[in-house]
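Journal club prep, notes for RB
We'll compare a predicted complex against what the paper describes. Inputs for the zinc ion case:
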Amino acid sequence: MIIELPKEFKYEGKGERREYAEVKNDVLYIYGDVPFRKLMYNITYTLKGNNICYYCGKRVKARNITLDHIYPQDMGGPTITNNLIPCCRDCNCEKSNFSESEYKLFKKLSKSEYKVFYEFIHFKHEVMREDGEYQLPKEWMDYENAGKFIALVEMDKEFKGKKYSYTKRYFKEYHAIPKPIVVSKNGVLIDGYTCLMVAKEEGLKNIPTITLENVIVHL
Ligand SMILES: [Zn+2]
């Protein structure tokens, strides 16, 4: 997939190593260990502003703005510009793990209908998980051979923490990983290290993958 990028953008890290990112000819080049999430947040604010809530339209002070995952993270929504939108804290809280379309439905309901709606959405999400489905556009994702992505770091304690246990538990229950991994055009793993590790451990051959066609990473 192609992620939304501004015409111009530069990021310079403070580290000793040369961490750097820039948009050139509609491609995002990343050099070194740039924190990808932070980069996506910054680029999203550059693209979509930082003082209007997308959902309620209210003005928000820059320091109070938040970023919502349009397709919720716990349904596989990735942290990329296409899936991030600036909004106020109240809307972000209220939307919680609804997708945008579910949230729009929710906003039309009266308070007395909330409980049934929450239950319905919970049920719907559970069915999707059981079917190994994620809540994001089909064209964003593909199934790739897990073997082709090389993990650059050895599995260590850090990766056997909470996230690891959660991913293992998720796999046991649904025979899938909680969310697609994200890789650059040149095959560098950007997000989903734990998912990739667990997929490999569990012998999952084809791994759900979001390939960012206009992102190149040089480590
Ligand atoms: Zn709002």
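Talking point for the session: DSSP finds six helices and ten strands in the chain.
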